[in-house]
Amino acid sequence: MHKLLSWDDARIMLAVMRSGTQASASKVLGIDQATVSRHLLRLEDAIGTALFLRDGTRLVPTETGQLLAERAEEAEASLASMVEAEAGTAGAVRIAAPCFITSHLLAPALPLLRQLAAGVVAELVATPDTAGLTRRDADIALRLTRPGNGGFLARRIATVHYRAYARRGSTGERLPWIGFDETLAESPEARWLARREDEPVLARAADLQTILQAVRAGAGRGILPVAIAGRDATLAPLPTPDPPSRELWLLVERRVRQVRRVSVSLGWVEAVMRDAFPPCAAG
């Protein structure tokens, strides 16, 4: 029968897993290496199996060690959430979203967040929509693709509509396209443009911000979100038959969703998105 586990033992095991060696963990924790070793041995005795294997100079968690570490991280996060909930709204909230959303929608709306929750520090992280997302990457995230299973709660909140734009006063439909590179080839807007393979392309880019700047400069025409390009006085819409659209998903990390500063920031993000984009269809 397993002995009662100590949180101190589990906390020290997490430090070893994160730093890779007992010596590094001892420096992080401010204790001597012998104490780290003693806690690990006590924890392995309580579990009844080894928690680490040596790989060169580093300690690598066993399958049991990895499982225990995940449970310990959950307990650590729950404890932190309880402390933070008591502390009010002050603190950082990490928000990950595509670059065009952080630059054109969230950043200009920061004064509203300041009114809602003085003391919240919004960490706006521009991430490609194709990038994987872990609970360490963000507290809140916006995605244009349906998220997979993981540590986030997700729901559709809006629809992002696209259409063709060119610089106002330019030759418009006679301009070449500023298209999408292969990293965006499967997106609805890239597939829409791919059907016009007989039309000239001047350049391709991996992000909408670059395409927007090229279109603003009059270099070509591009497929852009209406919520962004439609507010830009330097751009004019072009005929766009059967225009593409995408669903916008709002994600929040499960373990921190009840933390006050996260819940307030979540409401702010949702309000900004609903103001910019029409709601998604039910379903």
Keywords:
alpha/beta, Arc Repressor Mutant, subunit A, 24% strand
Give an overview of the whole structure.
It is a single chain. The protein is α/β, with parallel strands linked by helices. 40% of the residues lie in helices and 24% in strands. Strands 3, 4, 5, 6, 9, 10 and 11 form a seven-stranded mixed beta sheet that branches. A hairpin with a 2-residue loop joins strand 1 and strand 2 (58-61). The longest helix has 25 residues, at 63-87. The protein starts with 6 loop residues before the first helix and ends in a 7-residue tail after the last helix.
Low-confidence stretches: none
Specify the CATH architecture of the largest domain: 3-Layer(aba) Sandwich
**Could you state the order of secondary-structure elements as H and E?**
HHHEEHEHHEEEEHEHEHEEH
CATH topology of the largest domain: D-Maltodextrin-Binding Protein, domain 2
Tally of individual domains: 2
| Average pLDDT figure | 87
The radius of gyration computed from the alpha-carbon positions, rounded to a whole number of angstroms, is 24 Å
Number of strands: 11
Question: What is the tally of helical segments?
Answer: 10
Question: Which range best describes the helical content: under 10%, 10-25%, 25-40%, 40-55%, 55-70% or over 70%?
Answer: 25-40%
Characterize the largest beta sheet: strand count, sense, and whether it forms a barrel. 7 strands, mixed
Envelope shape: elongated
Mind telling me the CATH class of the largest domain? Alpha Beta
Report strand %: 15-25%
Distance between the termini: 49 Å
Helix/strand structural class = alpha/beta
